[in-house]
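Q: I'm writing up a methods section and want to include an example of the input and output format. Could you take the sequence below and give the corresponding predicted structure tokens, formatted cleanly so I can copy it straight into the document?
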Amino acid sequence: MTYNLKNIYPYSLKMFIITSVAFLSISCENPFAPRLSKDGENSALLSSQESIDGVFANFRYAYSFKDTLVYGNLLESDFIFIFRNYEKGIDESWGREQEMLTTYRLFQAAQSLDLLWNEVFVDVGDTVLRDVARSFNLTIVFNPADIVRLNGIANLRLRKSPTDKKWRIVSWRDESNY
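A: Here is the clean output for your methods example:
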């Protein structure tokens, strides 16, 4: 028995395309995007930023999965990062744009990042503006022979948006051992 491939191939290709389009059109959830948690749902990867705990959970998620989109959603448009330049003996800072570029480069260079948030030392403020100082451990694996371990305190100022009710980081003063 012989088959005429010219007649079979176009038909199977058309069926594949039709089936694929039908499947994609009825799918309502993006399988490549993390889900946002809902009350009582422990299996979700992202948390609601309507709580400060949600900001810290999403911060950890962004580092663990090297997700600059999630990380960028944590920062206010007027964000400022402050760090100590020990060589010069002064504090230096940069804005949101430089922070996103620096974080992107870190995410690209690292094989893996493991961020652990520890105890909260300071949590003061009101329902709109809060200052939170929290210790952390960050392990950066560039390759098996190049592993950097940072320990320190992140002093964060967070502001709650009046429009979407989400907390975002306005400033971050880094007090790490690096």
